[in-house]
Here is the input.
Amino acid sequence: MPAKNDYSVSGQDRVACFAGKSDRRTARSYRIGSLCAKMPALKQDQGPPRSMSEKDTIAIQLVREALLQSCAPGAATDEVLNKVGIDPQLLQTSDARVPATAYARLWRLLARRGDDEFFGMDPRKLKSGSLEFLCRSSMIQPSLAAGLTSGLSFLSLMLERMPAQLVRQQSLAEIVLLEDELDPRRAFTYFTYWMIVHGVACWLAGRRIPILAIELRCPAPDFCDDYQVMFSENLRFDRPRTRMIFSADCLDLPIKRSPEELKRFLAHAPANILVKYRDPESLASRIKHDLRQLPADQWPETEPLAQQLCMSASTLRRRLAEEGQTYQGLKDSVRKELAIVWLAEPSISFAEIATRLGFADASSFYKAFRKWSGSNPGHYRSLILNEAS
Here is the structure.
């Protein structure tokens, strides 16, 4: 591949975890056709896909993180894990996964025993019942903007070191943590906070709110795969501020929740805000991985792609449908991921981004980005680059 088409991410953009370690190969040495030899399980005679319950799992690394400041090691940890149905021996492994329901039981047990719904990660306890009060005080507000403002005020009052503010800037919104400490918190602390805030926001709105980016002051942890699935594939570490960025259109959504709906939500929390694990070996994940390696003008159409994957076009569509995906949706998803990374590079013009993504002109890219994210790309670039404001 000519050098001008090698659009691999470099430098500080490598902190955006969406590419993953396996994506470091260049397109020069990689083509989608190689999948045919690597994916024998995807031929037409493959058995039925794994059940959804087997995919609802959490990495063992997050179990260790949850226990770190909330449970003494040794017998106390073993007793807690056995009580929620997690084998303590799994803590000694690096690639084990546990059911999301078991992780949710662990969360609730630790919160109940420590009277702290924030795992002991703040000098002040987020006392039991805080999540319920957060929801009750937010659901009586007329809009998501008002609900988030109310909820963030409550969390800022309850947690000593996690004050936060909702900021609306043109087509974008951000929730910013107003930290005054020099040393950042660990990644798990930030992501637990975001899980609470984002999970409640989605419930208030009655729909999932897409996250465009999350920036964190802390270094990238050794493991962030599950964080990408739970929040966004665009995670940026070692940034000046910790913030979550999303489309401002969501803020105008009305809140229409009843006490009965709140009761059901709390009965299943936090399992209902732990997003399903995305199988990295799934067909959709592999196709997206390969699309990232090629310039957009070299992406195959459906028929050639199916041939390269050793299946018919109808089988390809069916396999993707079983995963809740379409090929066009995968291409749009990769275009959005790459656009978000390149928009953070001021040296790359909008016209160049449009060309890289296979658009005829910058205007077409603008329209597509607005459709993907609900935001103007110029607004997004301005917000990302204006980190000192």
In short: Residues 55-273 form one domain.
